[in-house]
Amino acid sequence: MARQTGKVTPTETTVAPAVAARNAVKVYGRGDAEVRALDGIDIEFAHGQFTAVMGPSGSGKSTLMHCLAGLDELTDGHVTIGNTTLDALNDRQLTELRRTEVGFIFQSFNLVPTLTARENIVLPLALAGRRGDTAWIEQVIDTVGLRDRLSHKPSELSGGQQQRVAVARALACQPSVIFADEPTGNLDSNSGGEILDFMRRAVDEHAQTIVMVTHDPNAAARADRAVFLADGRIVADMADPSAERILDTMKSLGS
Amino acid sequence: MLSLVLRGVRAHMGRLILTVVSVVLGVAFVSGSFVLADSLRSIFNQVAEDTFAGVDAQVRAVEGDLNSSAADELRFSDDIADTVSELPEVAIARGGLLAFEKAYSIDAAGDVVRSSGPPTFTVSWQGPSSVSSFRLLDGEAPTGQQVALDANQVEAGGFSIGGDVTVSMPSGDPEVFTLSGIIDFGEGGSGGAYFLLFDLPTTQRVLGAEGLVDSVVVGAADGVTPGDLAAAINAVLPDNLEAVTGDVVIGEQQDEFGSFIDIFGNVLLGFAVVVLFVSTFIIYNTFATLVGQRTRQYALLRSIGASARQIRSMVVWEAGLVGIAASAIGLFGGLGIAAGLKALFAAAGGDFPDGPLQIQLRTVIVVVLVGLGVTLVSALAPAIRASRVSPLEAFRSGGRPPRSLSFRLITGGIVFVPGVAMLGVGMFGNPGSTSSTLALMGAGGALLFIGTSMLSASFAGPVTSVLGAPIARLRGVTGEIARGNASRNPQRSSATATALMIGLALISGVAVLTQSILDTFDEILEESIAADLFIFEENQGLEFSGLVPDRLAELDEVASVSGYSTVEVRLDGEVVSATGFDSASGTDVVDMGVLDGDIRIGGDGVAVLDEVAAERGYTIGDQLSIEFEDGYTQQVTLRAIFDDAAVVENDWLLDRSLTRAHVNVDDVAFVGLTYATGANPDAARAAVEAVITAYPQLSVQDNTEFRETAEGQIASLQIVINGLLVLCLIVAFFGIVNTMALAVLERTREIGLLRAVGMTRRQLQSSVRNEAMIIALFGSVLGVLLGLLLGWAAVIAIPDSVVRNLGIPWTQLIIYVVVGAVIGVLAAWFPARRAGRLDVLDAISTV
User: Fold this and answer.
1) What span, in angstroms and rounded, lies between the C-alpha atoms of B266 and B29?
2) Labelling A56: which of A76, B196, B206, B311 has CA 20 to 30 A away?
3) How would residue A255 be classed by pLDDT, with cut points 50, 70 and 90?
4) Helices in B617-674 by DSSP H: which ranges?
């Protein structure tokens, strides 16, 4: 999968995780106003794993995701996606990496309003000037049930449909990892459940790696693993989480 | 409230500054027109007063109703000066003679010494005396075979006092004079004109006006008022002469300059109005977009208790601040424009006397009213829209739906249709005078632009989509995004494109008209001109001595030759203009398309245009009475009827043997000739040129050269007009910058998304530039199409003698479309850079 990444020197690991952060530090401001949003985080996300990242507001979970996805730079430490270390990359290389190795699902405003649903789905591929795996794309479209909506503009789609297009776009280029930022935050529970189903299926059936930031214990319960952040540090790391255990942990963290 | 406005202004400073710039250009031009005209007027008024400071009264000829000659060419016997000076009220009386563009100094290389713009005067020296307009700077007054020149001419010709100056004589071969001295006009306000001064007898000889003067300037004896002086002189003058006071002379002089300056100022104002007109669309667009973006803010203000009126006045105040800022900057920008234009004239050879730039209170008031007015009017519709925002919209996301298609079609049509109708009436109807035709067509054109702009919002979507298709195909998804963005807000795209459309419509219209004039010219050359060579004054088409054709006729190499001049005569009781030509040349030189009779009309014959003959019922053989400006009357016989007045320019033809005997100055406008059969063309031309060397201001050209000269002159006129119209394109440029900057801002989040999912900076920038290019292309194509329409309208409205064939300069029009597209790309440069620099993370998290 490591193509189109330019003159990047791969780190020599045998069974590299899909994404990893080593001693990740992110500091905003200086002196008295200094805020350590990430305070030395070490974490790996294995291939084919669905991880929920949780924590109270200001815990650093969004910052962690942005740094992992190459949208923001660490103050110190390293992030690797697949075999690629991000800190050596310039803006163009990062952009090309995001295009091929990373998929995004945002809470809202996921789609380009002037493009049709299909154009939105293949947007990262089109930007890279590639056609992608056509059979796979068709399969994704069918999976998320958008076949009859492909020529519609986002404004003609419901919130749930828009979010499904976003999921399809994230899956379409078969990235190393998909980052989802509160993907169900703006949806009713039915639509939200559907989105989580699609993500779950992608992990189970196609070994897709997903990292999802969420507040919702029920959404986090669909993941294979739940990681809790507070004050820029990992305070809990739970395998096969259930909603109850998540709630308990959240309570103990005081959020 | 005001603090909210100020905060709003501060928050959107960048965009408002761009809006200010587009208003400033127009306002500065208005201010510059006034400042320049006022300054010139004040300078020339002063010059006139200085010049005639010592003149208490002036004797001159009374103009009759037949004025073939300029007023200052009406000459009378120089005895009058003696008669006048014997009066007890008179201290001094000097006869004077003046002519312009008759004699020139010739430098050592044999080239005529003249400035490119202002004229060269031949004047009699009246000094040193209180009534002279000239003073001696160096050397002595000219007497006999001596000449005095102004300092500029001396420098240009490399002359020196005591040295020789060759002078071309209007009536014969050049003569050598001695430079006696250097003179200056008035207080040094010659405006770049050149002067040759001789004593009166020599001036009379040079100008072929022996014993004649055209004025007598008089100084009053002590204690005599100018009014009494003039009255006393009038008592002894014959009927054809009059005496007026010095103040009258000064006033007339000032009026003469004034009317020239007015025309000049009005032309500048006209361009200023066009530029302001274009900026209204930019201002409207900016405020419409700002209001759209602030809908939620207004809704919030409404929900916490602001009235609709307060919201409206917020927008109006903001526009008012923009207008005031623009007016203030524009007022002073006008000083720069005025100074720049003055410098430009100076560079072109017109040396204006120095004087301060005048900012009159009237200028300040007009500029502020115009700047403020234009901004407020343009911001009115957006302000009203802002006041209609309901409090509920605070809780609704997304903008309001745009106005319906049918609404735009109806309102656009309401404006567009009368515009076309007015153009049509101007073209085909007969609204009376030329000025009312032009006014009608100007208003029609303005409505046409506004209407097209409104209508274009209804088709901007699909058309930009079509125009963008090749780009989408070529550039893939970035092109597709550009195309989508260009057509997603048709109202904004069409308003942005409008500025470019108007600029290019005017420029294309001028191009079409120019091409049509050239095509017509070609046709005239083809159909009406049989001459082998033309002789004329190339710079300004000035008249020259009627002796030139006589001298050319003496050459063996020349078969037929004719001079052409215009005279005013009373023919069959009516004052008409007639062309005098050498009728023995028949149709050899100019073929005026003889329908009936013999064009060799002779000294007692006349020829008339077929239309006039039909209208008045004239037939060959009719006897008509003719009266000339000198009062001479005789009977002439109608000998020919012709149908092509394109070259001769008048409805009547007379033989020059008749006309030249009864005009004050025997001049011709041009001379044409044919070579004798069997003559070697090169040798013949050389012989003609040898004769013409005595008249260094004249050019000898064949058809091809003539055509090139005309083309060059029309092209340079086109360049001047386009130079002014380019201002519209500059305003349009800022309009696109503005729109694209607003669009980038509005789409910050979308840009963040695109960047997050893999759009590179370059791809983003190219998509912004392509979007601007598609919008600009839309404006350019519309503009060129409108330009074709306007050009066609002008061709129909302008008399057929000037232009009758519609010529379409395809290459130029295509270049204009490309230029429009390039303007779009360039204008998007900064907004694109800004878009590229947006931080992805910040952009995504923008709400």
Assistant:
1) 11
2) A76
3) low
4) 656-659
- Confirm whether B483 is domain-assigned: yes
Given a contact cutoff of 8 angstroms between Cβ atoms, the answer to whether B29 and B339 are in contact is no
Domain match, B546 and B678 both = yes
pLDDT band, residue B524 (cuts 50/70/90): confident
Of the candidates B582, B551, B565, B564, the residue with the CA atom closest to the CA atom of residue B694: B551
Cα dihedral sign for B504, B510, B512, B515? Answer: negative
Chain A residues touching residue B758 (CB < 8 angstroms): 95-96, 98-100, 123-124, 127-128
B538 with B417, same domain? Answer: no
Contact A169, A126 (CB under 8 A): no
Q: Is B480 in Cβ contact with A119 (below 8 Å)? A: yes
Q: Please tell me whether residues B502 and B633 are part of one structural domain.
A: no
User: What whole-number distance in Å separates Cα of residue B112 and Cα of residue B528?
Assistant: 32
Token digits for B397? Answer: 């996301």
> What residues of chain B lie within 8 A of the CB of A127, using their CB?
477-478, 757-760, 763
Q: Does B401 touch chain A (CB under 8 A)?
A: no
Q: Is residue B159 part of a domain?
A: yes
Tokens for B791? 């050009």
Contacts with B73 (C-beta within 8 Å, 6 or more apart), sequence order: B99, B214, B664, B665
pLDDT in tens, A127-138: 888 888 899 999
* CATH 3.40.50.300 applies to domain A19-253: yes
Residue B389 lies in a domain: no
Does the beta carbon of A71 lie under 8 angstroms from any beta carbon of chain B?
Answer: yes
Cα–Cα nearest to A175, from A47, A11, A16, A15: A47
pLDDT in tens, B112-128: 888 766 778 899 998 77
Based on the domain organization, do B76 and B224 belong to the same domain? yes
Q: How many CB atoms lie within 10 A of CB B13?
A: 11
Length of chain B: 847
- Strand bridging mode B633-642 / B667-668: unpaired
Q: How far is A193 from chain B (nearest CA, A)?
A: 24
**One domain for residues B575 and B716:** no
Residue A112 touches partner B, C-beta closer than 8 Å: yes
Q: Could you tell me if B787 and B759 lie in one domain?
A: yes
Nearest chain A residue (CA) to B762: A92
Q: Distance (Å, rounded) from C-alpha B737 to C-alpha B744?
A: 10
The model's pLDDT over B530-555, given as tens digits with 9 standing for 90+, comes to 889 999 987 777 888 888 999 999 99
Instruction: For B314-345, give one letter per residue: b (16+ CB within 10 A) or e.
Output: bbbbbbbbbbebbbbbbbebbbebbeebbeeb
Residue B39, amino acid:
S
What is the torsional sign of CA B434, B436, B442, B445? negative
DSSP B466: H
Please return the burial class of B259, using the count of CB atoms within 10 Å of its CB with bins 0-12, 13-18 and 19+. Answer: exposed
Integer Cα distance of B182 and B44 in angstroms: 22
Question: Which of B757, B761, B768, B771 should one mutate to test binding to chain A, selecting the residue with the greatest count of A CBs within 10 A?
Answer: B757
- Which of chain B's residues have a Cβ under 8 Å away from the Cβ of A111? 753
The Cα angle at residue B509 between residues B508 and B514, in degrees rounded to 5 = 95
pLDDT digits (tens, 9 = 90+) for A162-218: 999 999 999 998 899 999 999 988 888 888 999 999 999 999 998 999 999 998 999
Identify which of A95, A67, A92, A91 has the alpha carbon closest to the alpha carbon of residue A80: A67
Tell me if B843 sits within 8 A of B752, measured CB to CB.
yes
Question: Residue B780's pLDDT is what?
Answer: 96
B450 lies in which domain range?
405-527+703-847
Give the list of residues 6+ apart from residue A41 with CB closer than 8 angstroms, or none.
Answer: A21, A23, A24, A25, A60, A64, A77, A229, A232, A233, A234
Question: What ipTM did this prediction achieve?
Answer: 0.86
